[in-house]
Amino acid sequence: AGMNGTAIENFVCVIFNVSFMNCTWHVGRTATEDTQYFLYWRPSEKEDVTECQNYIKDNCGRHIGCKFQNVTIKNKNAYFLVNGTSSEKNIHISDYIIVEKLTPPLNVTVNCTEASHRCSIWWQPPRTSHVKNRNCFKYEIVIENK
User: Fold this and answer.
1) Most buried pick, 31, 55, 126, 132, via CB within 10 A?
2) CATH code assigned at 93
3) Residue at 123 is within a domain
4) In this predicted structure, what is the pLDDT of residue 109?
5) How does it sit in the membrane (predicted)?
């Protein structure tokens, strides 16, 4: 189970530009300086768990994040496990779920006619790591007169 306050805090994992993912966290408030955390993840329930290969470290050399490339998620959930080691304490184990930061819509096209004072706007949905249904997206358009 681990000691209270040793688990990581403020865990955030963000996919951006479709295939890159950064995960970051804060060291637990009662974790000692020799505490080391390890991040494991799997993109879906059917895939194997793998450990982070590119850790982000703080000034003490502790892992406080991870950078991933070529991320592919086949469904809406990915699974994370962060555990750790310390010579003084058992480290609390925690697990988490992923979030994706979407890119803007693609190929935005605007066609305005001066006579009718109307504009038509077309676009393609943003690229994502896993959402295939175009009906999942809602858009907001801000029009500024120039």
Assistant:
1) 31
2) 2.60.40.10
3) yes
4) 93
5) Single-pass type I membrane protein
